[in-house]
Every structure is written in structure tokens, then in C-alpha cells.
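INFO batch 0412 | record 1 of 1 | parsing
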Amino acid sequence: MFNGLLILAAYLLGSLSTAIITSRIMNLPDPRSQGSGNPGATNVLRIGGRKAAAITLLGDMLKGLTAVLGGWLLGAGETVVAAMGLAAFLGHLYPIFFGFKGGKGVATGLGVLLGISWQVGVAALATWLLVAALTRYSSLSALCAALLAPFYTAWFTNSSAFLIMTVILSLLLIWRHHRNIHNLINGTEDRIGSREG
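INFO prediction complete | emitting C-alpha cells
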């Protein structure tokens, strides 16, 4: 019962859309109706600038990190902590407070990875930064980090529960980027800093 409540709390925390909340507070357009239509930091950067994007990125990351660290602090085992991390991630993707239409989960997923192991989180972040520096494609950076995250988890944690969670998280993140994959193949994907749709 207690573990179920922890997992539910993690999902509800993940359901708090930082992009939408930040946009409302800063009197910006709803990110679901502007730019790419995605309530995430990259789209907020397009429509609201760096400050709003930074707040969104930090808030989304903290959701995942807080969910996992909360599990650790409350004495939950690896399986429950993994479930809490995945629940927070699912909350971001399918937020109950915003019609189950959420973001793609990159920052929240990073927060989850940082929570289960700072080494895994740093490795995933380094992958994102390297690919972003070379290509200036946020989506490609996220996809590369997602593909490598399970390997980082296996290497640094030696936990089957965390590995399974990371595989599911990565697959969901890749699936949520299916339009970006299509655009990358066609050469129509926006680069970081672009203010176009």
C-alpha cells in the first residue's frame, strides 16, 4: 500500500508540466499551441527565450530527480525506486493535470537517471552535450543519449531493476521523438536556437 502511494505520488509530481506552468506565470503563449506544440524546454526556448527555457529545463529535471531521491530517503528498495522514476517520467509524458498531453521526457528522464546514479546521469548528459555541440540538433542529442543510457545503467549500477526501467524509459523517449526522427531523415528538423515551428 505504502509503495503504491509512493509510485502514485511520483506520477502526480511528474504530471506537473513545468513548460505550461512557466509559460502561464511569464505570460507566454501556451507551448502546446505554438512552435512544435511540445510542452518542453526546447519549444519554450523558441517561444519564450532562454530564461523561460532554463526554468522549464530545471523544473522538468527536478521532477525526475525528486521522485527518485524521495524514494531513497523514504527507504524504498531498488524496485520501488525504479518504479517511482518511471512513474514520474510517465507523468511528464501523460500528465493527468493537462489532459494527458505532455512533453517528450528528455529533462525528466535525465533527472531520473541522476537519481539512480549520478554517474549514469552525467554520462547521459555528456552524450547529449557532445552531440548537441557537433550537430545543434536537440532531438538527435536526446536520441543518442537514450540509446546509450541502458548501457550506462548496466555499467554503473549493476541493478536489473534500474536497467529494466532505463530500457523502458529510453524506448518511450525514442518513440516520443518519432516525428523528429522523420524530420531528421528528411532534413527538415529545426536546430537548437531556431524560432521556427
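INFO post-check: The chain has one domain: 2-186.
INFO record closed
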